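Inverse folding, one chain.
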């Protein structure tokens, strides 16, 4: 009686073979040097089937790869294998311009990473009066992915506005607000708190247009008192204090790349 497994293999599609670069580096070493885990921990990830190379699951510890030209993912997250690449989260304080240098001599983002050895640049912007999460990196691929018009990575803002907020405000913001450069809409809205004369809102939107949150609310008659960006995609500001930075982990960078479709 024929072996059904053998028969199915013969009739079905060939099982894709994992890429193997004879002159490359062992996969577990690549993962360890990227800071993902110890060498032994990386071996466990491979044996558990958590690692793919160019979309093919790898379980063999002897697999060698050329990390510069292969796409390596762990648990579905693309991994940056160059240890020289670094991405920081910064809590930008108000009064700081979102540039690395300013001809007018105003405080810039560069002041908060002056002691870093890498040459970093910012990803996106926050207007001078706003505060919150912004990324600084030397990873050009990540920066391009996050700022690409088609990326549509959601950003979350905690906004304090003047005035009494009606229940209809969320609907108006979701439907779109006419602005000089075209209508803009939020993806999510929540009223957090309200006291006489002030209200605190949480807004989620993917638009990166200049001062778009302030302009939307002000167009509807609610001047912004304070604006804090609390999240970009999967990365939250958390308890990071104004003016402080932290280095994103390999998996956090992978989650950002995935959110941007990179």
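Residues assigned per position:
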């Amino acid at each position: 009686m024929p072996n059904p497994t053998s028969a199915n293999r013969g009739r079905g599609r060939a099982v894709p073979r994992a890429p193997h670069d004879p002159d490359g580096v062992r996969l577990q070493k690549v993962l360890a040097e990227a800071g993902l885990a110890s060498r032994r921990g990386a071996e466990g990830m491979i044996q558990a089937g958590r690692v793919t190379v160019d979309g093919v699951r790898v379980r063999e510890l002897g697999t060698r790869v050329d990390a510069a030209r292969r796409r390596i993912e762990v648990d579905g997250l693309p991994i940056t294998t160059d240890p020289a690449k670094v991405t920081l989260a910064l809590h930008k304080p108000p009064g700081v311009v979102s540039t690395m240098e300013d001809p007018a001599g105003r405080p810039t983002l560069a002041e908060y990473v002056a002691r870093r050895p890498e040459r970093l640049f910012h990803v996106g912007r926050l207007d001078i009066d706003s505060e919150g999460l912004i990324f600084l990196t030397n990873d050009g691929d990540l920066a391009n992915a996050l700022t690409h018009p088609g990326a549509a990575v959601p950003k979350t803002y905690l906004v304090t506005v003047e005035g009494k907020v009606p229940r209809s405000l969320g609907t108006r913001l979701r439907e779109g607000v006419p602005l000089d450069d075209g209508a803009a809409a939020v993806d999510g809205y929540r009223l957090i708190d309200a006291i006489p004369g002030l209200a605190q809102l949480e807004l989620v939107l993917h638009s990166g247009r200049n001062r778009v949150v302030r302009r939307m609310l002000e167009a509807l008659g609610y001047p912004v008192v304070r604006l804090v960006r609390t999240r970009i995609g999967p990365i939250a500001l958390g308890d990071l204090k104004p003016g402080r930075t932290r280095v994103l982990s390999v998996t956090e960078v992978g989650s950002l790349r995935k959110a941007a479709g990179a």
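The chain has three domains: 4-78, 87-150+235-259, 155-232. The helical segments are 4-11, 27-33, 39-47, 140-147, 169-175, 212-219, 250-259.
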